[in-house]
Design goal:
- The protein has about 425 residues and is of the alpha+beta class.
- It is about 50% helix and about 10% strand.
- It contains 18 helices and twelve strands.
- The protein has helices at about 5-10, 15-20, 40-45, 55-70, 75-85, 100-110, 115-120, 120-135, 145-150, 150-160, 165-180, 190-215, 220-225, 240-270, 270-275, 280-295, 325-330, 365-380, and strands spanning about 25-30, 35, 50-55, 140, 230, 235, 300-305, 310, 315, 320-325, 385-390, 410-415.
- A five-stranded mixed beta sheet has the order 1-2-10-7-3. It has a three-stranded antiparallel beta sheet with strand order 4-12-11. A two-stranded antiparallel sheet has the order 5-6.
- It starts with 5 loop residues before the first helix and ends with a strand.
Length: about 425
C-alpha cells in the first residue's frame, strides 16, 4: 500500500485506518519517509523536538527537484534563468529548532495576541459580510470561488497591509505559492510561469517591506519589517522577511480556505446539524474543531531524526525522515470515539492536531478559528438547507503530499 499514490491521497482515510492498526509507523519507499499515523505516536514525536527535528528543508526541496527533473531540457534552462533572480530564503520558524525557532517566532508573537485577534474582528466580519452578500445574491454557487477562497485571501491581505490596487496580483501570486505543494500536473510553460510568479511576488513583497521601513503602518508587514533580532541588534534581511511571509501566505489563506470548503461539505452531508448549529456560537466552535479534525487542511509535516531511536517499538536511525500524519491521528479511534463521524457535541474536540502542537503549534490558529467561527455563523444565519448541486460532479480533493484542499464545491441553498 502506498499512501502517496494519487488515488490514496484523494481519499486517504481507509488506508490510514488500516495502517494505524497494522503498521502505525509505515515506511513509504516512494518518498523514503517513515509515516507516523497513530495519535499517541504523533504526539510523542511532536514533544520530543531533540530527537525529531524540524530542520526538514531537504524534504520540501526534494519535491521541487522532482518537478524540475520532469521538465524538458529547454524548460529546465528557462526555469534556471528565472530562479537565478530569486532571493534566497533561509529557514525561520517552520523549519527551525530551539533556540533559533524562538528568535524568529518571538518577533511575530505580538501579531497574534488575544487583544490583536479581538481588535481585528470588525474587519474580518466586514469581509465575511461582503462576500456573503455577493454569494447570496444567487440561489446556488461554487462555494469555493464565491466564499471559501476570497474571504481568507482578502483577510490576509488586510492583515499584511497589501495596497488595494495591488490585490489582484497579490491574490493570484499567493494562491500560486500554495499550489506548489499540490501534485496537479503542469505543462512546461506553466512551470516557468509559476516560478516567474514566485520571483515577482518576492520583488513585490520586498518593495512593501522597504516602504514600511520608511513609513510604518498598522499592519503585519510593518511590524515584521521593523522588528530586530535582539541578539544581533539588526533588522531582518529581505530573505528572512520573505521566509516568514511565505509561511503567513500558505497558513493564512490556503488552509483556512480548505477548512471552509470541507466544513460546507460536512453541512451538506449532515443536513440535520444545520438547524442545531444556527445561532449557537458554542456549537459552531465545536463544529469548527470537528472540521479541522475530520479534514485537517495540513495532512502532515516531516521531521528529521537526529539520533538512533524508536517510536512505538519501530526502529529509526539518525538521518531518517518521518512524516507526522495529522490527518490520520485525528481519526484515531484510540483517541476519538466514532472518529469518522461528525459530532457537534464532542467533548474535547479541540484535542485535534490540525494546528500541530508544542513549540511549533500554528501561530495563526487564533486567527483561523476566528475566521471560521464568524464565517459559519454568518452562513448559517443567511441560508438554510445547504445541499450539493446534483448537476455537478461529486466534490473531490486535489492530490497533495502536505495539503488537503478542494478546488470546487457546487452547492444550492434556501436564503432566509
Amino acid at each position: 500500500m502506498s499512501l502517496f499514490e494519487v488515488a490514496t491521497l484523494l481519499d486517504p482515510y481507509p488506508a490510514y485506518k488500516e495502517l494505524r492498526d497494522s503498521e502505525p509507523v509505515h515506511f513509504e519507499p516512494s518518498m523514503n519517509v517513515h509515516v507516523v499515523l497513530r495519535y499517541d505516536l504523533v504526539r510523542e514525536a511532536i514533544r520530543d523536538t531533540e530527537t525529531f527535528s524540524s530542520r526538514y528543508d531537504q524534504f520540501l526541496g526534494a519535491s521541487q527537484i522532482m518537478m524540475f527533473q520532469q521538465a524538458s531540457p529547454e524548460i529546465q534552462q528557462k526555469m534556471l534563468e528565472v530562479t537565478s533572480k530569486m532571493i534566497e530564503t533561509p529557514p525561520t520558524m517552520l523549519t527551525l529548532d530551539e533556540p533559533d525557532h524562538t528568535r524568529y517566532r518571538s518577533l511575530v508573537n505580538k501579531l497574534f495576541t488575544a487583544s490583536q485577534v479581538r481588535g481585528s474582528q470588525p474587519t474580518v466580519e466586514a469581509v465575511i459580510n461582503s462576500n456573503a452578500a455577493s454569494m447570496f445574491a444567487h440561489d446556488e454557487a461554487d462555494f469555493m470561488s464565491a466564499f471559501a477562497l476570497p474571504v481568507p485571501i482578502q483577510i490576509i491581505g488586510d492583515r499584511l497591509g497589501i495596497p488595494e490596487d495591488e490585490r489582484e496580483f497579490f491574490n493570484y501570486a499567493a494562491t500560486e505559492a500554495a499550489a506548489g505543494l499540490r501534485l496537479t500536473p503542469l505543462s512546461g510553460e506553466q512551470m516557468v510561469s509559476r516560478v516567474q510568479t514566485a520571483v515577482d511576488l518576492q520583488q513585490f513583497l520586498v518593495g512593501i517591506v522597504e516602504a514600511r521601513r520608511l513609513e510604518p503602518k498598522q499592519d503585519m508587514i510593518s511590524i515584521l519589517a521593523n522588528a530586530k533580532l535582539e541578539d544581533e541588534d539588526r533588522l531582518l534581511t529581505h530573505g528572512e522577511c520573505l521566509s516568514v511571509l511565505n509561511q503567513f501566505l500558505v497558513a493564512g489563506h490556503e488552509t483556512t480556505s480548505s477548512a471552509f470548503g470541507w466544513g460546507m461539505l460536512l453541512l451538506c452531508k449532515n443536513p440535520e446539524v444545520q438547524d442545531e448549529l444556527k445561532g449557537d456560537e458554542k456549537r459552531i466552535k465545536t463544529f469548527v474543531e470537528e472540521i479541522l479534525r475530520l479534514e485537517a487542511p495540513v495532512q502532515g509535516l516531516p521531521r528529521l531524526v537526529t539520533k538512533d531511536t524508536e517510536l512505538g517499538g519501530y526502529p529509526l536511525k539518525a538521518g531518517d525522515m518521518v512524516m507526522l500524519r495529522y490527518g490520520a491521528a485525528n481519526r484515531d479511534e484510540r483517541q476519538f470515539e466514532a472518529p469518522d463521524k461528525l459530532d457537534i457535541h464532542r467533548a474535547k474536540a479541540g484535542a485535534q492536531l490540525a494546528f500541530g502542537a508544542g513549540v511549533h503549534f500554528c501561530i495563526g490558529a487564533p486567527l483561523a478559528r476566528q475566521e471560521l467561527n464568524l464565517g459559519f455563523k454568518k452562513l448559517l444565519d443567511c441560508a438554510r438547507d445547504y445541499r450539493l448541486d446534483e448537476r455537478a460532479p461529486p466534490p473531490q480533493a486535489e492530490a497533495s503530499f502536505i495539503l488537503r484542499n478542494m478546488p470546487t464545491l457546487a452547492i444550492k441553498y434556501e436564503k432566509i
